[in-house]
Specification:
The chain is mainly α. The N and C termini lie far apart (67 Å). The chain has 6 helices and no strands. The relative contact order is 0.14. It has a domain of 128 residues.
Length: 183
């Protein structure tokens, strides 16, 4: 005689065993779902970080290639010495990827979000300065003031280099989603 026959009828024993297997199955499926979701989230974090890394690195490469500090000093000197001279300043769009993923910024690790947002805030400030410089009336404010504003603009770009390097370092430190540095 089986040991549980005195406590439960064989049909009840079968129901309990089937219920246990069903409950274990639910737990297994739930754990697999969580694992899959975590893996997909980690992939999304890596994709977002790689895209931002590429966008930031591309702009920094342009600024470094153009030797922005020396170029800015030369242009500011021309503004001061050449009557009526002021350079054409093109509109910049160095944040297309950031704007595309800004609604998903919350997926990034916290220590990555702050430097990235600071960098892109600097780009927004540069964009506002470009708008102001394009509307500048050098005849009204004078060459010295115009040159000073242009120097401020270049200073903002140099600040973007520093903030961009900080953002790249933060992204690099969290690229694999574990906080370990990835080169």
């Amino acid at each position: 005689m089986p040991p549980l026959d005195q406590i439960l009828a064989p049909q009840a024993q079968s129901a309990v065993i089937a219920g246990l297997f069903l409950a274990i199955g639910w737990w297994v499926v739930a754990l697999q779902g969580r694992r899959r979701d975590a893996k997909l989230r980690a992939e999304r974090v890596r994709d977002v970080q790689r895209a931002l890394f590429a966008e930031i690195r591309a702009y920094l490469a342009v600024l470094e290639r153009d030797h922005i500090a020396e170029y800015g000093a030369a242009i500011a000197a021309r503004i001061e010495t050449e009557q009526g001279y002021f350079p054409v300043i093109p509109t910049e769009h160095n944040n297309a990827i950031f704007h595309a993923i800004v609604s998903e910024i919350h997926v990034l690790p916290r220590d990555t979000v702050d430097p990235v947002v600071l960098y892109y805030s600097q780009l927004n400030a540069i964009g506002a300065m470009i708008t102001d410089l394009r509307a500048l009336d050098t005849a009204r404010i004078g060459q010295e003031r115009a040159a000073a504003m242009y120097r401020d603009y270049i200073s903002m770009k140099l600040g973007a280099i520093e903030l961009g390097e900080g953002a790249l370092a933060a992204i690099r430190a969290n690229m694999d989603g574990t906080g370990r540095s990835v080169q």
